[in-house]
Amino acid sequence: MAPTAESGVLQSLEAEAQSRSGLLLAADPADQSGIALDEATVSPSSLSGVGAGPDLETASVPAQPAVAAQSAPGTGSGAGLSALGPMSTGAADAAPSVGVLPELTQPAGGPVTAAALIGPVVAVEPAVLPQMKGVALLRQLAVQPRSELARFFVGNADSVRSLLAAPPSAGAVTAWWQSVPPAWKHTISRSAPELVGNLNGIPFPERSAANQSLLTESLVHLESQLDADLGRAELGETLRRVEALKDIRGALGDGNSEPQRYLLSLDLDREPTAAIAVGDPQQADYVSFLIPGMFFNTGSQISEWTDTAARLYEEQVSWLELLGAKGNEAGDTIATIAWVGYQTPHLLNVGSLDLAREGRDSLTGMVEGLQSSRGADQPFLSILAHSYGSTAALMALEENDFTVDALAVIGSPGSAAQSVDELNVRNGNVFVGEAAWDPIPNSSYFGSDPGAESYGAKRMDVGGGLDVIREEVLAASIGHNEYFGPGTESLRNLALLAIDQGDLVTDGTERDQERTVASVGR
């Protein structure tokens, strides 16, 4: 079929929005934010976290003339989603559903369902879209003509900023995304990759594709700026950001990595933050989040942290294979996530909890996004947190509503929680590791010491010794930064607790000699 004039306009708008989605300008030395933002040339999808507005789950919109009625996508009888046709047809650009915009309701005790979002919706006049927020705006993105979507993303930075700075709940996002027709998903992903890549509740493979597109476009733009007549400060900042994004690209591998790696988040505001998964967290039976402490950033440590996640992945696979050979369940899959989703502290601000609160909120959002998008197929979920990152994780599990299956805190300065009973961890499955010559754990700088007997956590030995199952000598972790070292007792134990084999985690007592495969489940 020959492309229509309308489809040509759509493709041009998508290309323009996509090319602008990664625009990052070199820093203006006079700008304390670190980035000079020209709203005439910067896409809304590159400005998350700048400013915020109230998150309105519903919005009042003026009455609109109805257009020809159609069945909502995925409902009624007839052609269903296939009726949308290929992107090159004019019919595919029409709004897919019409009617009245009902108030979004959440069933008591249950998540927002896709059915609650799919109902008939009025496609409002495009001029009204910037006045809408939250779920009401998301729903409009599913019913507007696709050419209007592309125009909207090019010209309305504030609306997208509000969605990312104060997003709807992960459950609402998941239900909305399930209701969006495939062709509309394609247009939204191409026109606003940062929105799709960082909206918790969208499945991770789709988020990764959007984030990798954003990463590529951002690098192209930044490298083009190096040919401009930049001042010394601007040039230095641009070079630093180029190197940070190249490090993220390098940590992802060449696309042929086994297992595959996924870019789960990419925030280009301030110092870039990112999360990279080794293995597919959307499908894995066991998912582990690795949370770093101070001095970790995407500019120099993302590759190292991803290598750590890969090392943990291999250790977990090794144990699953061994346990399978010994008659335990085999065939389970793994994903480990190198999460650098917050601005980690340095020496001048490590004494404050401000960045821990940022980490608390960012980690909560991503975990809730995973749990929402997985639906009934939930993995065994663990959080393995080091140093200042453990404080952020403890705060998240004490103050927010999500629950995980296991938590390990190592080299932890503590938090306000007084015991494992205050943490949303199933069955009190909390482990604590404290290495010799590590001054941080006993400091209790941010609250109670998780390693104190009164706290009720399980001790995880990191001092080295003999692994009686694999008959190999394990190295000790010494000081504050060796907990994830290869061949250490610490790494062994982290791998085991993350695959629901806490009974095999050594604690440095005589009972360690009895921790054999045969003892599992006794």
Automatic annotation (TrEMBL):
GO terms for molecular function: hydrolase activity. InterPro entries: DUF1023 (IPR010427). Residues 59-83 have a biased composition (Low complexity). Residues 272-446 form the DUF1023 domain. Keywords: Hydrolase. The keyword Amino-acid biosynthesis does not apply. It comes from the Bacteria. The keyword Hydrolase applies. Residues 36-83 are annotated as: Disordered. This is Alpha/beta hydrolase. It comes from Lysobacter korlensis.
